[in-house]
Amino acid sequence: MYVSPIREPLIRGEKNYSQVTKDILAPMAGKPSKYWYMGMTLSSAALVFGAWATFMTIYYGIGTWGLNKTVGWGWGITNFVWWVGIGHAGTFISAILLLFRQKWRTSINRSAEAMTLIAIACAGFFPLIHMGRLLLGFFIFPYPNTRELWVNFNSPLLWDVFAISTYFLVSLIFWYVGLIPDLGTVRDKAKTKIRKAIYGFLSFGWTGSVKQWSRHETVSLILAGLAAPLVLSVHTIVSFDFATSVIPGWHTTIFPPYFVSGAVFSGFAMVLTLLIVARKALNLEEYITVNHIESMNKVIILTGSIVGIAYITEFFMAWYSGVEYEQYAFLNRAFGPYAWAYWIMMTCNVVTPQLFWFKKIRTSLVATFIISIFVNIGMWFERFVIVVTSLHRDYLPSSWVMYSPSLVEVGLYVGTLGLFFTLFLLFIRVFPVIAIAEVKSVLKSSGDHKKTAHHE
Amino acid sequence: MENNMFKLTKKLQTIGFAMVAIGLLALAYGFIAGLGGDRIIANLHLNGFYFMSLGLIGMFFVAVHAIAESGWQVSMQRVGEAMSYFIPVGGIIMLLVFLFGGMHHLFEWTDEAHLDRILLGKVAYLNQPFFYIRFAVFFAGWILLAWMIRKTSRELDINGDKKYFNKLRKYSAFYVVFLAITSVISSWDWLMSIDAHWFSTLYGWYVFSSMLVTGFSVIVIFTFVLKKMGYMQHVNDEHIHDMAKYMFGLSIFWAYLWFSQYMLIWYANIPEETIYFYERLKYFDTIFYMNLIVNFAIPFLLLMTRNSKRVFWVVVPVAVIIFIGHWIDLYQLIMPGAVGHEAAGIGFLEIGLTIGFIGLFMLVTFYGLSKAPLVPKNHPFYEESLHYHTNY
Amino acid sequence: MNNSYITAYYYDEEELLEGIRQIKEKGVEILDVMTPFPVHGLDKAIGLRRSRLTRVAFWGGTIGALIGFLFQAWVFTQAYVINFGGKPFFAVPSFMPVTFEMAVLFSAFSMVLAFLIYFKLGPGAKPIIYDERSTDDRFLLIVKAGDADETKNIEKALSQAGAEGIKHKA
């Protein structure tokens, strides 16, 4: 396929196919580095903290949280939405960028999808633990129980059950179908018998014959076509949790697209945070180049600006609507007791990403890393602001209260962070972090040489 | 060697002016038959906005692809550029409508003596001077940026220097950002404030998605017409495939926004909000359901398979259906509030006037096409657009 | 029945496509091609028809949507009728999210299962691996061999078409 000479190459270092295999498989071989162990220790420690908090919650009940009668949803739901949002980048990169034929996705889609799966697992933990009685969690599924009562299909919380589980399952098969050919490569490159047996088992008997590849491409494309509306639907349905209510600040029609945009925004920020470190640690700088970072930063500007427009629209409409409760809710957000959270949100989500309009900043790794952290923080506060400031001063001034989290709630959040990083660190040891076959398929058109040299 | 310069022939001019004449006739009929100022003005407003927004999307098509650095659309981008010539024309029509009775007939908030408590609360935004200031800012920005993009695109065509390409991208970014903000605010001004008490935060994006899918469909229609006339032979089923994907995807996106807005208002069941859909479901039920079938079900079913997306004879009829469908969408946004169910209707006035506007839009776009080579041969991505394959 | 075949490989996908064109002209029957990544245009060169998996996805999705919608409708209008906040029992807008999710779920799973079953792919499947390097950087070509003379001619044709590592296996 013809590629204009003014396009920048995506993969550096004049690679040929066997080098690509070697470079990408390198992090899986040998002993893990010192940094890996350090990361693992830190995240396992966080995980242990989380395990303690989980124990406390289950043993003593939800009373160990800082929730009260007015603020019935606090950190738990904030974290849930935050993690679901982060889980949006992977499928967005793989599905929507695949449909738009953006070649730069090939270097980052695999790890972003893994991140998606882990993030959804973290997210799913919060509604489950918030039930208090974890063992009765299966009540949320429609099954013929002894009371002949079905679940409430009118409830957005039930839609969530369907949306999140479908999203997890479809993302899982999407990710795994993409992994199969690469696992075949790992199998064929394996040096030891055990390794060969394990990856042979995992690779499902892939051979890479022409028909397999052809059908594999069809499957990937249709899964992408299915995942694209799916990824929109998930955060849409999460936003319905709030927007179907009549609580000022929650009931607003812009929520669905605005949540989706915010989700992609925070997801990309998390991908950037992880990959800027990973590319360095795993020596993959020639595959995940500054061009990739720049492209992701452009998505951050786009989605960040959409979120910004949504904030302003909401604020304006609250005034324009003439509904005094709505007006008060927004004034309370911006100037009430939680104003600090609101302004952190505004600064991190609306102001800092705009710095990416400057090419210097958008191509600087340090600046990108810092801003990506800002966005992660900002998007957490967005959910906190929506949940807590709308609830803590409701229609009855006599029940106005403040809310602050207990140590157990903090522990649960830190615990999921630990879970996230632990699983991600395991992932980079067990699976190829970059889609080998996909990178090879764009190598010729997007590598920095036009002809693959013969070797041997 | 195919002809790269489009010529606005006598025959095309005759057709165009004949259509405009039908439009004028319909307008005259409206006055003679005594259809009422509300209905005539609302129709002029509907068409003025509808076709002006097609111009905006024509330029958006160019700009958004310039920012995304995609290559395939280059061979069709002149169509989008030509459509943007209609922005000032549509602007003048809208301004004339507002100046000569439009404000009074369309917007109840202009009746300052009879404002209720809610509307009094909105006076800081909904007042005539501020309304006209916003109008001026929108059009000044749109016209200026569209002109700059067209100019840069032509300079790029003459010498193909990368400098101009970067300039094109910069202006395109300005245009997209400006349009993102103004399209939302303008839809509040010109459409949402017709039902002055009602509000919905999603409204602006809903209107924009409707504009977007129509604009892209109209680009397809123009490309097809040009191809039939013997121009732009390099546009093949690969390009049409991608345009059809846009039409398919954006129709779903539109339906998604429609559902989000409708469902949330239905679910929360707050009278101030549900009144909007109550009116439409009670008195405009045919239009209401047709809107969904024509704009979602038909494109979704007809453009689902790969093969149908690659055939002009499927894609172009669907594009025409979408074009009509979103006219209906706009009709149900404007008419219940501006005219009311007793006086509104679809007759010779509506159809004839729309034909007139189609004629005018055609003339302006063809004029725009004749101003520059149809294919920007020196565009850095031109070659990519020629050797372009979509596998799926 | 002659089961013998010849394997040969290329280092480059464009050379592979060109080579396939040349040996096909000479009437050599290609049994299979193994490549490290999907090569654009190879399915056409081999003469594969378009996939029918799209139909599986479509019908899977349709069935999923129907199950999702009808089940909810049955629960709310037949099985256990409860008034939820004054909403109609047959609350179509409320049914949409679950209907959609079920459609996607069924569509995706039916298609992927069809794909796996068709190729007999699954945990622990034991494939015949002709050359381990074909998942790394070799574009492996497997052609049908004939009797001794024919095989010689085919091998010659292969080497003329630029293939390397030509091996005959009975």
Describe the structure.
The complex is a heterotrimer of chains A (456), B (392) and C (170). Mean pLDDT of chain A is 87; it is low at 450-456. Chain A has helices at 17-25, 34-60, 75-86, 88-99, 109-130, 156-189, 193-202, 210-243, 255-281, 290-321, 324-335, 339-351, 359-362, 365-392, 407-430, 436-446. Chain A is 68% helix and 0% strand. Chain A has one domain (17-446). With 392 residues, chain B is an all-alpha fold. Chain B has one domain. Chain B contains 15 helices and no strands. The two termini of chain B are 31 Å apart. By secondary structure, chain C is α+β, with helices and mostly antiparallel strands. Chain C has a four-stranded antiparallel β-sheet with strand order 2-3-1-4, covered by helices on one side. The longest helix of chain C is centred in the middle third of the chain and has 27 residues, at 53-79. The mean pLDDT of chain C is 84. The chains are: A mainly alpha (456), B mainly alpha (392), C alpha+beta (170). Chains in contact: A-B, A-C, B-C.
Class inferred from helices and paired strands of chain C = alpha+beta
How many angstroms does the end-to-end distance of chain A come to?
Answer: 27 Å
* Rg of chain A, alpha carbons: 23 Å
Main sheet overview of chain A: none
Average per-residue pLDDT of chain A, rounded, comes to 87
Give a concise summary.
By secondary structure, chain A is mostly helical. In chain A, 68% of the residues lie in helices and 0% in strands. Chain A has 16 helices and no strands.
Question: Secondary structure elements and their pairing?
Answer:
The complex is a heterotrimer of chains A (456), B (392) and C (170).
Chain A: H1 17-25, H2 34-60, H3 75-86, H4 88-99, H5 109-130, H6 156-189, H7 193-202, H8 210-243, H9 255-281, H10 290-321, H11 324-335, H12 339-351, H13 359-362, H14 365-392, H15 407-430, H16 436-446
Helix pairs in contact in A: 1-16, 2-15, 3-5, 3-9, 3-14, 4-5, 4-8, 4-9, 5-6, 5-15, 6-7, 6-8, 8-9, 9-10, 9-14, 10-11, 11-12, 12-14
Chain B: H1 10-32, H2 37-68, H3 77-83, H4 86-106, H5 117-121, H6 128-159, H7 162-190, H8 203-228, H9 237-268, H10 271-283, H11 285-302, H12 306-309, H13 312-338, H14 348-370, H15 382-386
Helix pairs in contact in B: 1-14, 2-3, 2-4, 2-7, 2-8, 2-13, 2-14, 3-14, 4-6, 6-7, 7-8, 8-9, 8-13, 9-11, 10-11, 11-13
Chain C: E1 5-10, H1 13-25, E2 30-34, H2 42-46, H3 53-79, H4 92-118, E3 139-144, H5 148-160, E4 164-169
Antiparallel strand pairs in C: 1-3, 1-4, 2-3
